[in-house]
Amino acid sequence: MTVDSAVPSVAAPAAEAGATVEFRGLRRAFGATTALDGLDLTVHPGELLALLGPSGCGKTTALRMLAGFETPDAGEVLVDGEDVTRIPAHRRDAGMVFQSYSLFPHLNARDNVAFGLRMRKVGTAERRARAQELLELVGLPGHGDRYPHQLSGGQQQRIALARALALRPRVLLLDEPLSALDAKVRLTLRDEIRRLQQELGLTTLFVTHDQEEALSLADRVAVMHAGRLEQVASPAELYARPATAFVAEFVGTMNRVRGTVAQDGTTVEVLGVRLPVDGTTALRGEADVLVRPENVRLAADGSATVTGTTFLGAATRLTVRLPDGTLVKADLPTHEAAAFPAGTGVTVSFPDRPVLVDSVKDH
């Protein structure tokens, strides 16, 4: 007997798929190490949110709490307003894809995809039909009879993704699913994950330490550091208006140049020019000014020196040594960078726009 009501069709309307996920005051410690320190975060229905941060920041712990593999010391996990904090993993309506593909080696691709359906007592014919539908969805319609050892890494991860989607979960959890793949396959599968997520309307959490991956894939990015949430924003806002120095330097490349913050904290003098401070700061006097390479301007002649160039395609990155020894990176259109070969004396300046300031660090 098939159980159609328990397992919605893969092609169910997107509006019915997405769930609201809330983390409320989550705390978790492992011995003396604090993995989560009061995490508050909401994921909207149908949204792909990336949890981004360095190793040990708490992002995977948060994902495992949503999956039901970890229990918080304090706080709650809610899905569509329901407190699922103490509900076992097998009773949560979530699909999870791991970094390691975790396929059953003794099952072929079709049976791996259908495994969850079999556990739900779905009939054989229905299981096979839905597994085939999912294989087509992930672009592997002719691979159902192959075993994991007969598949490439990218194909195995597609099968793992299809298996996670088989029960049509309200929430899809991806724990660094691309990190074990080579660069070309990673890019292709990244696009496929985004296409499937949008097509199905699934609320998705994607854990990664790769900033490029997060910025290219997510609707919003939550940057975490030392168990705390630093900033949640769209990729464009995160890059253009980082809320903290940590976010500024973790997301993209950032220069640090010594400056002096005015006593009222609203402006900073750097390279002989006074610029407005972005936001508010308690710093006064000597501080570091944070500026992205594309916002560094170069002019011919001056006391700074171009020490090297790196071709990036449409842009070229120049490394410039300031008179105080500080190294600054400047990204220029390649046709403009040709005028500043290594050894050229230049003047460095920044555009008249608000800049982030931070306490002084060694350059």
The pLDDT mean sits at 91
* Large-scale geometry: elongated
Strand segment count: 19
Largest sheet: 6 strands, mixed
Helix/strand order: HEEEHEEEHHHEHEHEEHHEEEEEEEHEE
Alpha-carbon distance between the termini?
68 Å
Placed side by side, the strands forming the largest sheet appear as 6-7-8-3-9-10
Number of helices: 10
Please indicate the percent range of residues in DSSP E strands (runs of 2 or more). 25-35%
Gyration radius from CA atoms, angstroms: 25 Å
Query: Helicity, in percent?
Result: 25-40%
Helices and strands: which structural class? Answer: alpha+beta
* Unreliable parts: 1-15
List keywords for this structure.
363 residues; single chain; six-stranded mixed sheet; disordered N terminus; 10 helices; five-stranded antiparallel sheet; alpha+beta; Transp-assoc_OB_typ2
Q: Can you walk through the features of this model?
A:
With 363 residues, the chain is an alpha+beta fold. The chain has helices spanning 14-17, 59-67, 109-119, 124-137, 153-165, 183-200, 211-217, 235-240, 245-250, 334-337, and strands at residues 21-30, 33-43, 48-52, 74-79, 82-83, 94-97, 171-175, 203-208, 220-225, 228-233, 255-261, 267-270, 273-276, 285-291, 297-311, 315-321, 327-333, 345-349, 356-358. It has a 6-stranded mixed sheet with strand order 6-7-8-3-9-10, sandwiched between helices. A 5-stranded antiparallel sheet has the order 13-12-11-14-19. It has a 4-stranded antiparallel sheet with strand order 2-1-4-5, covered by helices on one side. The radius of gyration is 25 Å and the shape is elongated. The relative contact order is 0.12.
